[in-house]
Amino acid sequence: MNVIETRGLTRRYKDQLALDDVNLDIAPNRIYGLLGRNGAGKTTLMSILTAQGFASSGEVRVFGGNPFENEQILSRLCFVRESQKYPDDFTIRNALDAASLFFPNWDAPLADRLLEDFQLPNPKKHRIKKLSRGQLSAVGVIIGLASRAELTFFDEPYLGLDAVARQLFYDRLLTDFADHPRTIILSSHLIDEVANLLEHVIVIDRGRIVMDDEVEAITGSAFAVAGKSTVVEEFVAGRPVLRREGLGALASVTVDAPLQAGDRERAESLGLELAPVSLQQLIIRRTLKANERFGSPAAADTNVEVAR
Amino acid sequence: MNRAWAVARMQMVNKWIYLGVPAIVLVASTGLALAILAVIPNDDGATRLAFSGQALMWYFLAIGVQSMMLAFPFSQAMSVSRRSFYLGTLGLYTALSMAVGVIYWLLGLAEQATDGWGVDGHIFALPWIAESPWFAQILLYFALTILLFMFGFWFATVYQRWRVLGLVASLTAFGLLILGGVAVATWTDSWPAVGAWFVQLTPLALTGWLLLAGVVLAAGSYGTLRRATP
Predict the structure, then answer these.
(1) Which residues of chain A make contact with B17, given a CB cutoff of 8 A?
(2) Of A173, A200, A217, which residue constitutes the final position of a domain?
(3) Separation of CA A146 from chain center
(4) Residue A233, domain extent
């Protein structure tokens, strides 16, 4: 049975569509990436899935029911938002103590280990409102991991974390996931950084789901070919091209189709180089293409944030 | 119900907010009032009133705002339903308001026993109120405290749901309502009647009206909270 099912989910703010006819099926015990640019609708979607926000129309089913005011369903999920607020004067310890009251699978020793891992200041003394951005993210990450909720959302969990802390989070997440499988939805706009964690990717752009596929299927569904432009053009003739890049007589073309039998040998004999396309590259290309198709106001906007 | 209880405990996790600060407010405001009374000479032995007791009640207004603006978004991250948050929060502050009522009544007894703390001061046993039976005194102080809490809570809930625009609109509407009442009383020349109504009011009747207003605000808060977002 699916953990999450949405049908025709739409969220309208005054003059803009934050979510536009979203249909999703999320299977249990997997790690999903919810990817998209800032303002694409990631947080709005997660808010509605956890009954923190409301849809304008459409249907949400989490664990088979509507999560709104449903304590049986709510107690099985955890969503600490990126801009989470805490009660005034709460210390880190206060927040963790409070979380232990609400999450049935709360693992206090794990929370304590993570406190040390992330090198947070004295949890009994340090007030949350005085923490840095990175430390605040760490508190959210600790609550998310230690809650061991059957359905856990991480909302841009790496914001402000240094490289070591980010790696630590990814490692801890995978280790704990292996021991306690559950459904994890990781929202991110840094795609390559989380690509190794993900099994399934959902890409959202301007409130629309533009990609909903297995990571393997996505990376296997395209390839790049580079070499002399005339030869490259001959090679890709008749294939769907996602992107062309040229430098003098050389060209690199991204083809939006899997490699076919005999392609490798042919490329080799033509002196062309074949390369896989990274998840991030593919998502950027497809997002841009989807924008063209939907006629976005900023179709020429190549300044995609994920490209950083 | 379990989770409503957990919401109450969640807000008691930080004892400073519900024990430390109120104690400081109570002690400081009372101390200040007594110091002022001690400085002013009282040769004719007249009854001297100090209304510093309200300081703690205004703190409940601030708590009402804070529990909605900060504890509510946090409770959402703790996967608590709005209903449980509402029951747990109102339950907790109803109990604390009741505690304020009892403390004020006890302080009033102490005040009467010590001739107004030795300086003829009336802070907790205000004449009109102190003449009523003990339960009426406790209930009146309770009603004032919880009403201020509900006031802060409801306006903060309006803000959470409709943000600045909603807050400004509701505050304006509230102001217009009072202004309308004043205008009607003036046009119909009923100020003497209004005055007479207030004069005949007993502490217990006043308590009833305050509690009624509190219940209206509590019901309004729940209706507003149902669709509020963190």
Answers:
(1) 87-89
(2) A217
(3) 20
(4) 219-307
